[in-house]
Design goal:
41% helix; alpha/beta; 385 residues; 10 strands; 10-stranded mixed beta sheet
Length: 385
């Protein structure tokens, strides 16, 4: 399956890796199964079905919730470790994040073809904002995804294309200024039709980066999100996408394939809107759990000095170097794959930020961090493992 693992750029000046807000989200493809599982399905289901996005998504879920070893047996419980943190105000867990990355990163396989290592789509990019959708799309490629698409406005398309020939850019979104009032319904329908042609091919979509606040564009993206949900495509919501869903919670309500990645200000607005209260740092894990439960089904990665990740059942605290957790001992079988993706993304971005800062110090910018994404993954999960 292509699962989006998400994390913003970290600010290496803070211990453990903090972040400068508003820079980039990395969508990394998390998918695949052991060679024996692939051979079994290829023999019994046919190559066309085995290559389909729907199959890969199902296979990833099976692998994450009931993983097998190369010899066909059950994976040992040590492959996903948890540790106790007695000082936590609520039940907070910490996974061995490097083990998570190793578990969900597929081995390179000569039998696979283009597209089987993940196809990602970024929905965002307008005339004012072209950097964020590029950063997310190129980051997906840097950690091993095969294809990365960007669906943006016509004004943004040429700019984003100029950043890299590796990206597939679709200039189909429109803003209010370019559409007459009497044309909006037909234009909106055309946009949805064009995106829908591609939707089933994607393992994940990332919504909101560089989207802006244009009302017509927001309406178009709302329709795209509804279609993605009907097609059971995992969706990561960040940036202006969070502004959109904060004012229309129904877009992600009860969607177990949705991941929200708010920063401190975006999280505050979500809490105020959904829970009708202020952020409570003393009971952060309990409040995050309540927020997930109130929305229903979603996974939220609350970004900060330590990333808090929850699906309304358990809260994982993803640190750069410290792996601490509560008195219960969750296993791989009990962990939501959306949470696994968030844990992996948090680790990779923090590690890349640390390496980028080590080289560039105060002059570190987003592209310096993206440069080290590949090395960060290789250090944790070598190709020849």
């Amino acid at each position: 399956m292509g699962l989006a693992a998400v994390a913003r750029r970290r600010n290496p000046r803070e211990e453990g890796g903090g972040r400068r807000e508003g820079l980039n989200v990395s969508a990394l493809s998390v998918f695949g199964a052991c060679p024996h599982a692939w051979r079994h399905h290829l023999q019994h289901r046919g190559r066309m079905w085995a290559a389909s996005p729907a199959f890969r998504r199902q296979l990833f879920l099976l692998r994450s919730l009931a993983p097998t070893c190369a010899d066909g047996g059950r994976a040992s419980s040590s492959s996903l470790q948890v540790h106790a943190m007695s000082a936590a105000p609520g039940p907070v867990y910490e996974a061995d994040v490097e083990a998570v990355v190793r578990r969900i990163t597929p081995p390179l396989d000569r039998a696979r073809h283009k597209g089987q290592a993940g196809k990602i789509a970024v929905i965002g990019g307008c005339r004012e904002y072209t950097g964020a959708p590029y950063f997310a799309a190129i980051s997906a490629l840097k950690v091993g995804a095969d294809l990365s698409h960007v669906f943006c406005t016509k004004d943004a398309a040429t700019v984003i294309k100029s950043y890299s020939p590796e990206l597939i850019v679709h200039p189909i979104l429109e803003e209010s200024y370019s559409v007459r009032e009497d044309e909006r319904e037909s234009v909106s329908s055309t946009i949805l039709t064009e995106v829908a042609k591609w939707m089933e091919r994607f393992d994940c979509i990332v919504v909101g980066l560089g989207l802006g606040r244009d009302s017509f564009l927001m309406d178009c993206v709302s329709n795209i999100m509804k279609h993605a949900r009907q097609a059971n495509i995992p969706v990561v919501v960040d940036g202006d996408g969070l502004f959109l869903i904060t004012n229309n919670i129904g877009l992600v309500e009860d969607n177990s394939l949705a991941i929200l990645t708010p920063n401190v200000y975006e999280y505050k607005r979500l809490v105020q809107k959904v829970l009708n209260c202020e952020v409570n740092e003393e009971n952060a894990s309990e409040q995050l759990t309540a927020l997930c439960q109130k929305i229903g089904g979603v996974t939220i990665m609350r970004k900060g000095k330590a990333d808090l990740i929850s699906d309304g059942k358990k809260v994982f605290s993803s640190w750069a170097r410290h792996f601490l957790l509560s008195n219960e001992q969750p296993t791989e079988k009990s962990v939501n794959p959306m949470i696994l993706g968030c844990i992996a993304g948090s680790l990779l971005l923090r590690k890349a930020a640390s390496l980028g800062f080590e080289k560039n110090k105060r002059s570190t910018v987003t592209t310096d961090i993206i440069e080290f994404l590949g090395q960060s993954l290789e250090d944790i999960c070598p190709v020849g493992r």
